[in-house]
Amino acid sequence: MLDLLIPFLEKMAHFGLTWGPLLVLFFMTVESSFIPFPSEIVMIPAGFMAARGEFFPGDNIMAAVILAVACGITGSLLGAWINYGLSLKLGRPFLHRWGKYFFLDEAKLNRAEQLFRDYGEVTTFVCRLIPVVRQLISIPAGIAEMRLGRFTLFTGAGAGIWVVILTSLGYGFGTTTKGLGYGELVHQAKGVLDQHFIWIIAGCILLVAVYACIHKLAVGKQIKGL
Question: With CB atoms 3.0 to 4.6 Å apart as the test, which of 23, 94, 158, 213 could cross-link to 90 if both were Cys?
Fold first, then answer.
């Protein structure tokens, strides 16, 4: 899919100085919903363009980077809320019967549901960094009627880490390379990402463990105070 979308990406890149933030917001919303669309071809080029002064506002590189990240996270949340809301309202039988007509493969839905059943609400954080499941984990959360506040917190945290990583990769390539095309940029950056992906997941698992310990201590203190 990357190779098919790269020519389209190169055309959109010409609008970075004018419409960059809105384009990132739109495509990350699409990416985070049920429509298959790789976030790598959005956030990596956004960071790359920001480093080169080609992303709104252009002349202020740090402002461009922050704006790209903010739009990426917001778009991720918007798309996740769409999945969550549809799942909450339509329910599991409808999604499994008709989902295949809306890019929701039943095998992938089953996988996402199994992960949510096995590991609970925290999967909405960790799975934001796992391809394919990243978009679908919002669906079992909606079916299970997970509280919207907790869903937003965990999803925003996971999506935030992912967006920052991708934007930083693009920014790094933008500051260290010259004359690199967008297609080559995405492939090279994705290669670096794949090479270090295990450490990203390990870091997230560590964060979950720390959260679990803090939560357990807080609950223990509340019980003692009763």
Answer: 94
